[in-house]
Amino acid sequence: MGSRTAELFSEIDKLRTELLNNVEVMTDCRRAEEDISQREILTRIESVILGIVTSLSNDEAPVLALPKRSSWANVSFNTAVGLQMSSGCSVTSIRSDCPSSATKFAQIVKILSVIYRLVQSNAYATKRDIYYNNTQLFGSQRTVDIIVDDISCLLKIPRRSLHVLATSKGLISGDLCYLEEDGTRINCRSSSAAVAVSSNIVGIRNIVSSAKFIMIVEKDATFQRLLDDDFCTKLSPCIIITGKGVPDVNSRLMVRKLWDVLRVPIFALVDADPHGIEIMCIYKYGSVAMSFEAHSLTVPSVMWLGLLPSDLQRLRVPEEALIPLSKRDEGKLNSLLQRPYLTSQPDWQKEMELMQQSKVKAEIQSLAAIAPDFLTSIYLPNKLRYGGWV
Amino acid sequence: MSREIQQVLRLIMLTGKQKQRRVLKTAGGLLVLLWTETELSGQKINCTVLSDLKERMFPCVGPCPEPDPKELSAFTDLYGSLGLLLAFQMKDARHCTSEWRAHIEAFLRTFSLANAEINVHLKFRLSQLDSQQEFKVKIKSNVVQANQPSLKLDVTCSRKSPLCVNKGRWCQGGHPVLGGRLPLSIPPQAMDQGLLGELSVQFVTLLSPCVLQYPNAATELTHIQVLVYSPSNVPISGPSGFFQTLPADLDCQQLGLDRLHCSSFKDLMHGGGTVYAVDQENWDDPEQESVQQSLLVFLFLQHSDPFISHLIDIMATEVLIEHHLEDILNNNRQAVTTALQTELRNTLTAQNHRKKHQDKLHSAAEVIISSSLSIVSSSSNMEFRNTCLNRMKVHDTRELSASLRESLWRVTSWKFIPRGSCYSTQMDELPEGDELCRTEI
């Protein structure tokens, strides 16, 4: 059994050694961010308010300058970090004297006042709490979500340090135990049920795991399938985590935290389609919108385990299980190939070019067309055993 | 007497129009001189109308008293050689009341509004008392019409700027808007009298004062004045039966107005025409300072008949149009009412947008102030608190709240965005006596 296990993980162990030799330690940088004191947070908020008062004392309409978080022109690619916001980035002016932006100005100042009180009293609230406290002002949950991230970017303070929490949507299971900030002990080892990703990742401590690898699963459906097939027992010790599609910040923080603590290979299991590849890139390189927090959200060492476009040919996945690429898929694929991080991933480029040429995509579920339990019995074990990642 | 003056002006304008076709100057000066003379048979009023039209059309038909040569020379000094002199006499000076004088003034003022290129001088010498007035146009606007000569309107606005607005940034003119053109059917009774051809009405609206440079300023329409002009651009005064009953036919709810009713309040407006006072719905914020505006609606009647070309026939047609105006308007009641509704709606749509923007800004301002104040009040950072109080020159957070609120409201309400087409700072730079003219299309 021991030698079988050693054989199963030999390639993974080799990869781990390689990663540990190559990875740059970024702990100093992150620690500096997490150590922003309460006083400093309050001072940064006060300086925004002072700016407003000063403008009015000069008979000028107050204006807030928000860094543009959605512009590719404001990000640069760093192989060690991923997509990060450039210094001197362009800003959007939010004016208090313009009907089209006055409401947003008010929403920002309102949330600043909420955060100020939370930090002062060392209390926490979720984004949902903030929204429901004034639904008329905010209009939608999404407005609050965006503004909280804008404020985080404006003040250069992580959202969690602003005492604003978000309900996590991700799930985690496998060889992992830890303590929440309030002392609750979390054991992810149940074979049939997953644990919700914590909403306070920074507060997690005493992480205990002997996992050989971590697998990020794109979809909840695939994740549940793995649970049903008792994957974590079959390929023990390991951890599986899903963000249920495009991951929220907590899921990304959790993956990063596990990497920082465990330093084991992290694999991505996504559909062989442009959307899946993009989700995988978010975990690995980050997103434009959250590029200002890239250091704590990205894991540049993530490897693409499957489903690879080359797997479709190699495994002769039945044609009826393949789906033609739509115009939108082709557009997204072209856009992905233009991304700055792809130049450092020639193997990924090859896979994507193969998809471009074949003009087909496939979900992980397509493997069931070969055999019902092909995914967990054959595909994944062989991929992990023989180093079938790129 | 006023009817005679009206006829004379009609003659001058039609003559000028005809001459324009032969490329001769039409604009210039017009002097209306009225003076009383005591004779054995009683006091009489004499009237002389002088123009600098370059071709003498009518010899002076006597016996009519000659005007004072000093007046003549003062006029020719300004405008050059005399082209037209018409004189007539009213036998009974008992009609020369202050109301009559006011009527003449109002008529000429209304004339000047739509004929801004003509400087109108009015002089009274009644019972040894002299008075004179010049209807000089400071700012005129050229309104281009398709297939018609362009209109030259006086768009000067004498309303003073609000106290909190820099005088140099206040638009002293208006921006006429060319509205729709509505064909009118001629009623049978007018046709029987010889009024034939094609008749239509061109709408032009002028809102003043202009606040286009202050997109956030609240406005309130308080008065609407309707002025009707004959095809020769001479004002037609009364009958006003149609316009008296107009408010009942308009859909005030659609316009967002509570009520529209005839008003005798003419101080704000130019004399003549029909004036309506406007009561607005939902105007319930007495703290909100709004700019009161008035709307001038010009109705320019246009007529063409290929079988009429002699001046005397054209003048007769104009008299017919004026005589049958009430019948014409009633004959086209629904169409004219709908057209006026459209013009008013177009004007009020802009005002309603302003109101919505104001409401948005007001709500946002309240949140901004209360949130900012919440942070200042709860801060333990004395340096921050004191800096905020000192910047606003107040002593405590209660005063800070009032001061911030007032300041934010002021800077947002009176946000200034300059427009090249407005008549603001350049007016201060304009040499005395020069006029400003813009073309609005």
Molecular structure report:
Chain B: Pfam families: DUF4554 (PF15091). Chain B: This is Type 2 DNA topoisomerase 6 subunit B-like. The complex is a heterodimer of chains A (390) and B (441). With 390 residues, chain A is an alpha/beta fold. Chain A has helices at 2-8, 10-22, 27-34, 38-57, 99-121, 127-133, 135-138, 141-155, 220-228, 231-234, 249-262, 274-285, 294-297, 309-314, 327-338, 346-358, 374-385; strands at 63-67, 75-78, 82-85, 91-95, 125-126, 164-165, 171-174, 177-179, 185-187, 195-196, 205-208, 213-217, 238-242, 266-269, 303-306, 323-324, 360-361. In chain A, 47% of the residues lie in helices and 15% in strands. Residues 25-33 of chain A have low confidence and may be disordered. With 441 residues, chain B is an alpha+beta fold. In chain B, strand 4 (118-126) and strand 5 (129-135) form a beta hairpin. Chain B contains twelve helices and 15 strands. Helix content of chain B is 37%, strand content 28%. Chain B folds into two domains: 2-135, no CATH class; 140-160 and 171-345, no CATH class. Chains A and B meet through helix 4 and helix 5 of A and helix 9, helix 10 and helix 11 of B.
E-strand count of chain B: 15
Q: What structural class do helix, strand and pairing data of chain B support?
A: alpha+beta
- What Rg of chain B do the Cα atoms give? 27 Å
Which sequence of SSEs, written as H and E, runs from N to C of chain B? Answer: HEEHEHEEEEEHEEEHHEEEHHHHHHE
Biggest sheet record of chain A: 6 strands, mixed
Largest interface: pair, residues per side:
A-B, 32 and 31 residues
Strand order of the largest sheet of chain A: 10-7-13-12-14-15
Total helical elements of chain A: 17
Low-confidence stretches of chain B: 22-26, 54-63, 426-435
Percent of residues in helices of chain A comes to 40-55%
| Relative strand content of chain A | 15-25%
